[in-house]
Amino acid sequence: MLETKEGSLYLDGKPVRIISGSIHYFRIVEGHWRDRLEKLKAGGFNTVETYIPWNFHEPKKGRFTLEGMRNVERFMQLAQEIGLYVILRPSPYICAEWEMGGLPAWLLKDPDLRFRCSDPVFLSHLKEYYDHLLPVLKTYQYSEGGPVIAFQIENEYGAYGDDKAYLEAIRRMYHEHGIRELLFTSDGPDMIKPGSLRDEWTTLNFGSRPDEAFQELEEWKPGEPRMCMEYWIGWFDAWGYPHHTRDAASTGDVLKRMLNLGASMNVYMFHGGTNFQFYNGANHYDTYEPTITSYDYDALLTESGEVTEKFRTVQRILAEEGQDIEKIPEEKPARLSERKVELSQSVSLFDTLPSIAARRENVTPLTMEELDQSYGFVLYRTTFEGKGMFSVELDAMQDRAFLYINGVYQYTYYRNDTKKVVDLFFPEESNTFEIFIENMGRVNYGKYLSERKGLIQNVWIGNRYTFDWDMYSIELEDPVLDFHHQKDERFPKFFEGSFSVETPADTFVRLDGWKKGNVLINGFNLGRYWEIGPQKTLYLPGPLLQKGDNKIQVLELEGHSTPSVSLVSEPDLG
Fold first, then answer.
1. Partners of residue 384 on adjacent β-strands
2. Which residue ranges traverse the bilayer (predicted)?
């Protein structure tokens, strides 16, 4: 077992230094897991670290799944086959720029529930999840012949709260399920006191100044084995902001300083991957900033798994430290041949609602969570009685809304807009009023963690509320489109086409001329695009393609200037 004693880490009674890299299996199609893990081992690393997101494995209350990209068992088995130790972080909250920090959105159906504390209702949900997950993880412990050497209790808890009873409750659940490996917490150096337990291993998260960081740890816990659980070597991107990079020399310099201090470390990220489907998170400080689809992170491997200069730099440093490294071929991986794909069929979302949406009626509008919906879009529809110009208050709409009167587009609202009221003209005595709302990603860090989506309250029009609403939940799970009953020309619109593949390989979907929406390949949602960037291409992993015909669908929310997309061999992240 991994142990802490005399200021050092010991495995099976022998001193050990953990040289780890973060790879999130849930951001990578399973067909690429082995490649990424083998490159980690070749780079001089002896350990892989991964979070386990609760919302990915229990997407609906009581519906637990470990299949496909969720097969964390297979990921651990591959790591062991390749010769890597595993650090698991199955804490209820992961942050990670992941939707709601990994907490499942269905928790928000209970308005009285309080997250990340010893609230008994929250702990009861967590216990039911762990009753399924932890028995699976238990069998992969190092002490039982598996690769897992450590488990995280909670993640950056000092940046959220100080409920030690909550941390102890998680530890107790681990022990009740037979988890016997080393337990730890991880926090920023200035947040370790509220976020840690005195009698469990305290690790740090930082991107620079390792001397100062470990000095803070030493002052609070003298003799604690030093480990940076998240050495941030890059950063994530948000829509409308520049693409982040960090040069290889700076990355290597901090790494050498950390190793010279005798520390263990985990590179965050070794390989970032992709926020497929609707799993991107968001940050909210002064404004709401949703994370882009790519989680390239300027990591050691690119989003598509290519080796970078930063990888070579780190590999050289680790070789100097005596780590075993392997040469990786210089040639670029295979790419699908470049081509233009025509999207010859189209249909308005409003014409295909019966085949893609679940309908619900209620006297007042329900939030997305009250509709038992986690992600995607909701169309709200009601009848407004009154002719003339009326003010419509917008701040009930989370996060981006399109407004229509009698089937005619009127206005687009984004929650960051300073304008919170718009005057709209209702031309008839009785009018159909529609609001199409996109959830652009729940906040994954800080005080806005528990915000709800959709219409979070009734809409104030003129000087009154309107009642009796129809609501259509749209989650884009392999939509089957009806192209035969087209009457409406409004956006959002679906576009569909196909292309033939001889040998499946990675490619990138370029969307010049399109404005905002999602791309699906053979029913799998690659994620969001938005013309404001920085990201201009979506990564399409080869394992999602099949020999022969492949179906591509685009849900365009706002309008476009071309009926085609391009498959290109290079990414454009801005």
1. 431
2. none
How many Å apart are CA 2 and CA 14, to the nearest integer? 9
C-beta separation of 179 from 151 below 8 A: yes
Note the pTM of the prediction, 2 decimals: 0.97
- Contact status, residue 565 vs residue 552, Cβ threshold 8 Å: yes
Query: For 422-461, how does the pLDDT look when each residue is reduced to its tens digit (9 = 90+)?
Result: 999 999 999 999 999 999 999 999 999 999 999 999 999 9
The three-state secondary structure class of 554 is strand
What are the beta bridge partners of residue 388?
Answer: 426
Closest C-alpha among 165, 137, 162 to residue 151: 137
Residue 476 CB contacts under 8 Å (≥ 6 apart), including other chains: 277, 278, 356, 376, 377, 518, 520, 525, 555
Residue 189: what residue type?
Answer: P
Spatial contact of 495 and 343, defined as CB atoms under 8 Å apart? yes
* CA–CA distances in Å: residue 16 to residues 84, 225, 380, 443: 13, 11, 58, 37
What span, in angstroms and rounded, lies between the C-alpha atoms of 27 and 33?
10
**What are the C-alpha distances in Å from 254 to residues 212, 298, 313?**
12, 16, 12
Active site residue ranges: 156, 230
d(CA 2, CA 182): 6
Sheet holding 548-556, edge to edge: 345-348, 493-501, 548-556, 516-521, 524-530
Tokens of 215: 């000095």
H or E element that contains 124: helix 120-138
Q: Which of 419, 455, 452 is nearest to 435 (CA)?
A: 455
- Prior bond of 365 cis (ω within 30°): no
d(CA 309, CA 59): 38
Nearest-5° Cα angle at 187, 185 to 188: 160
Whose tokens are 């199409």? That residue is 436
Residue 194 amino acid letter: P
Helix (H, G, I), strand (E, B) or coil at 210: helix
